[in-house]
């Protein structure tokens, strides 16, 4: 019965490969069911750690997307110099203010009347 199942499986494999486009048909003609790799019978490889890590370390997944996190970091780096520092008062800033208050506005109003 084992020979019958092997021949049936070979027939189904041959039937499946029958209509596929190939450059060289002889590549599939040399297929033998007995030559199938027996790698599935091996024991799976096991990871053996080389270092001991403390059990206090817990792996936690981040809730934010890695792309969004990267973009936020880049935006923060770019805009770090533009933000106003709340520790400095307005008078202590090194750059002069962009707009100056007019001190002569009352004089102009008095002259117009």
Automatic annotation (TrEMBL):
Organism: Gadus morhua (Atlantic cod)
Highest taxon, organism lineage: Eukaryota
Protein name: DET1- and DDB1-associated protein 1
InterPro entries: DDA1-like, DDA1_dom
Summary of the function given for this chain in its UniProt record: Functions as a component of numerous distinct DCX (DDB1-CUL4-X-box) E3 ubiquitin-protein ligase complexes which mediate the ubiquitination and subsequent proteasomal degradation of target proteins. In the DCX complexes, acts as a scaffolding subunit required to stabilize the complex.
Ranges annotated as biased composition (Basic and acidic residues): 77-91
Domain DET1- and DDB1-associated protein: 16-77
Region of interest: Disordered: 77-113
PANTHER family (alphabetical): DET1- AND DDB1-ASSOCIATED PROTEIN 1
An example Gene Ontology CC term for this record: Cul4-RING E3 ubiquitin ligase complex
One Pfam family per UniProt: DDA1
Family to which the UniProt record says this protein belongs: Belongs to the DDA1 family.
BP-aspect Gene Ontology terms: positive regulation of proteasomal ubiquitin-dependent protein catabolic process
